[in-house]
Design brief:
This protein has about 220 residues and is mainly alpha-helical. Helix content is about 70%, strand content about 0%.
Length: about 220
């Protein structure tokens, strides 16, 4: 049976993680010369301008099952405005996952030095804990090299031009490949996505905790 208490506690973190992720894409694009996202109102911390219904539902369902994967509406980028489209698209793609890792780092610091005891404090600690989990899960899930996830843009920017062009031809099939992977991973209990997320997330969390525990 779904645990709606978890959903209530995690929802603020879900909304802010998705919103800040897309805001970071829009901010990076704007700083690199593309005003498209800003002109469309996407350079905003208002969740309503970023949320994708299917991606949000997926994140809610997976959070209640113990981990979180999901997505928001992609930020529009016009490469014609960029000075170096290949390199700049890579940085714009990285901005989203990096923003979630930064948020997780801040939340680990707050969690580490937050006093325990009291119902309100314990609820806040739970919210922060889910915020850490969701931000790390969102960051590393989005680094899967499957279009339209950020990892595909990063890989495309790292590949030589000829290979990048061939890889780009996968974009039209990307959503089907991603959904197929998620379904197969769950039905066959392969653990591919969970491992892809869990291993770097655990390493990151351990490093963050060690940094703050030394203060």
């Amino acid at each position: 049976m779904p645990d709606f208490t978890i959903l209530f506690i995690a929802m603020p973190a879900i909304l802010f993680a998705l919103t800040f992720h897309e805001y970071a894409h829009a901010w990076a694009a704007w700083k690199l010369g593309d005003p498209t996202a800003r002109s469309m109102g996407r350079l905003s911390l208002n969740p309503l301008v970023h949320l994708d219904p299917a991606g949000t539902i997926m994140l809610i369902i997976t959070v209640m099952s113990g981990f979180g994967i999901g997505w928001a509406k992609p930020v529009p980028v016009d490469p014609r405005y960029l000075r170096n489209p290949r390199k700049d698209m890579l940085w714009i793609a990285l901005a989203g996952p990096v923003s979630n890792i930064i948020l997780a780092f801040i939340l680990v610091g707050v969690f580490t030095h937050m006093p325990s005891g009291g119902a309100l404090t314990d609820t806040l600690r739970q919210m922060i804990r889910y915020g850490i989990i969701i931000n790390l899960a969102l960051a590393f899930f989005n680094m899967l090299p499957i279009p339209p996830l950020d990892g595909s843009r990063v890989l495309k920017g790292l590949l030589p031009p000829a290979q990048a062009q061939r890889y780009g031809q996968l974009e039209m099939y990307g959503p089907m490949l991603l959904i197929g992977l998620i379904i197969a991973d769950q039905m066959l209990q392969l653990g591919i996505i969970r491992t892809w997320i869990a291993v770097p997330a655990q390493i990151s969390l351990r490093l963050m905790s060690e940094i703050f525990s030394s203060f």
